Amino acid sequence: MSAGRRTLGFSWPALVALAALAAPRVALHDLDVVPEGTVVAALLAVGPPLCWVAAVLWRRPPRPFLTIVVIGALYGVFLAAGHQVFWDSSLGMDAPGLAGLEPGAREALLRGAAVMSSLVTGTMVGVVAGGVAVLLSRVLAAPARR
To answer: Which positions carry the signal peptide feature in this UniProt record (predicted)?
Structure first.
């Protein structure tokens, strides 16, 4: 058994698969297939982290918070890659406030910022979902009191 599996409770392919549950939202959002504010958009945003929490509650890894933060960070990688792939169709060079920069420098700056933002966003989704998982695991594991 690998050290990652002992600590995180899942194999790396399983962690990547759990993170990939959130990847379709990136494409559907960037291509404007699913409009913001709809029930479908909400399900695409909230559904995958709920699946992460459910998987952790089911498997009971030794460090549930860390497990979901890792899944969230992996999701951040999917998010960053997706935004890069769909860059032209979602944003292109229509970003305001950077008109003084050369087009190549402006694109490099914006793409780099998008990557960093995606990694932070994915990790923070993992932090919030991990906190929920820890709280639920404590509530569900607490002995019944009278």
So the answer is: 1-22
Write the single-letter amino acid at 132: V
The domain tally of the chain equals 1
Per-residue pLDDT tens digits for 8-33: 999 999 999 999 999 999 888 888 88
Q: What is the dihedral of CA 79, 83, 84, 86, to 10 degrees?
A: 130
Q: List the domain range (segments joined by +) for residue 16.
A: 3-141
CA atoms of 54 and 133, how far apart (whole Å): 8
> Do 30 and 89 meet the contact criterion of CB atoms below 8 Å apart?
yes
Contact 77, 124 (CB under 8 A): no
- Residue 146 counted as domain residue: no
- In the chain, alpha helices (H): 3-8, 12-20, 23-30, 39-59, 64-85, 87-90, 103-141
**Can you tell me the distance from the alpha carbon of 71 to that of 77, in angstroms, rounded to the nearest whole number?**
10
Rounded to two decimals, the pTM is 0.85
Q: In this structure, what are the phi and psi dihedrals at residue 117, rounded to the nearest 5 degrees?
A: -60, -40
Say if 29 falls within a structural domain: yes
Q: How confident is the model at residue 120 (pLDDT cuts 50, 70, 90)?
A: very high
